[in-house]
Amino acid sequence: MKKKVLIISGGISKERNISLSTGKEVAKELLKNGYKIKINEPNNKLLEVIKSFKPKVIFNALHGQFGEDGYIQTILETTKIPYTHSNVIASAIAMDKLLAKTLMAGAGIMVPPTLALNEDSHVYPENSTGAHVIKPRNDGSSFGVVIVPDKKTPPPARSIWPVDSQLICEPYIPGRELTVSVLDGTALCVTEITSKREFYDFDAKYEIGGSTHIIPAKIPEAVNLKACLWAEHAHRQLGCRGIIRADYRWDNKSDQLFMLEVNTQPGMTATSLVPEQARFVGMSGEELVNHLLEIAQCDD
Questions:
Q1: Ranges of H-type helices in 54-156
Q2: 80 in the Ramachandran plot: left (φ > 0), alpha (ψ -120 to 50) or beta?
Q3: Which end of the chain is less enclosed by CB atoms within 10 A, N or C?
């Protein structure tokens, strides 16, 4: 009998369409492996679907809030069915940019310092007039990220973000965009991302041709090694499982590397970085998704 896998994708976050694309790509690879699959968009009948379909494993292809912040993981824990990616605690911590930065800094990973924010009709840092970045504390795919390049630029209006959004602010790090995928505790490689856009925003990430991926990154070996080691360290420190992606800015003029965040459920779309890095180290998409299912079952 073919092993049943339930893929949950879509959801209610701003990243719903990306999640649907991830779910389709995962389904395509699983069918090659002979699995019997069902794709479901989670709603108040999710537990009924799980009970009816009786999957052996659940592939969590959700992105953003409710999908990778610990909420859906809490629901899945009640089913006693293995599911892919990180557990409740690791997911919640990694999604909270402020908490994750605090833990990573305590573990010796360099992260941008968080600036205290003033919020009224506009948003600006209390003690800095230099270039800075304002973004939601709990969101992904560069949603709500605003770069203020200099003190001549007016502060952004608070109305840009939902009223209930918690915001954080950090200095803008000049330089180059790097990323490292970690599979089951081992870094795959370093990719440099370039784009003609102001920064690696949502369109640069997901539009065909929106960015260029240089793999492996043409960077000094010492930077390459540090990026890989820090990504593996973050995977362990946050208690992650399966695949993660750590994003960096490397100020090549001062030779300083900063980890920006850890994504516990990186995309698996046609333009996503994780499948590309897996292919670079000799792992097909079919092998990647199969390995993620194996990890989930081994940790059950």
A1: 71-77, 88-95, 97-106
A2: left
A3: N
